[in-house]
Every structure is written in structure tokens, then in C-alpha cells.
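User: quick one, fold this
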Amino acid sequence: MLTGRDLLAKVKELGDVSKSDLVRACGYVSTKKSGGERLNFTAFYESLLEAKGVSIGDTGTTEVGKAGRKLNYIATVQGNGNLLIGKAYTALLDLKPGDEFEIKLGRKQIRLKPAGSEDTDD
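Assistant:
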């Protein structure tokens, strides 16, 4: 996926093409489970605005997820009670499916400790 000056240059180079072709040419495409193509318009437009110097909202972080979005290090409890961390964070920590953690509850905090590791903070 193109970002910054490269994205702006590609948009200018392509000129009057359709929005779908523009998003596709800039690399904002993913594959659906069914094998079809998904055009990521939101990520494209967010990157385009950022490249033009328009801030959509300052999260105060420097880490970037897969789609070029800044990670905000905030998780929300879902309606079913689950707490979703998200793929960008697990990738950042190089976590793999099947990795296990011990849940440590503190006063108004939750800590995840890799199962079987030494805990030096207790």
C-alpha cells in the first residue's frame, strides 16, 4: 500500500480513473475468505488525507497497524463481554495462534503473562 509522497504521486499520475481503479492501483486491496477482492476505500482515503497533512484524529501513538492506521492502545469490552485485543497488537508482539497467557487481575487492571514465564513484578 502506498503512503505519503508515493501515494500522492500515484494519484496525480493516474488522473481521471475510477475510484475503484485508483484504490486498486495504490495497493489498498485485500482478499476475502471467499477468494474475492475487497477494496479498502477507508484505509485509502485515511492515508490520502494523512499524506495531504490532514489529521483525522491524534491518537498520540507512533505504532502503525497493517492498514496504516495508528494504534491507540485502547480496547473496548464488546456486548457479549469479550475483550478484543486485535490482530495489529498480536502481530506487534509476534504472538501466534495457540500462545497461552495467565491472566493477572489487579486493582482496575488486567495483565497477561505468558504461561510458564517468570513473573518478576509480584
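User: anything notable?
Assistant: The first strand starts at residue 29 and ends at 31.
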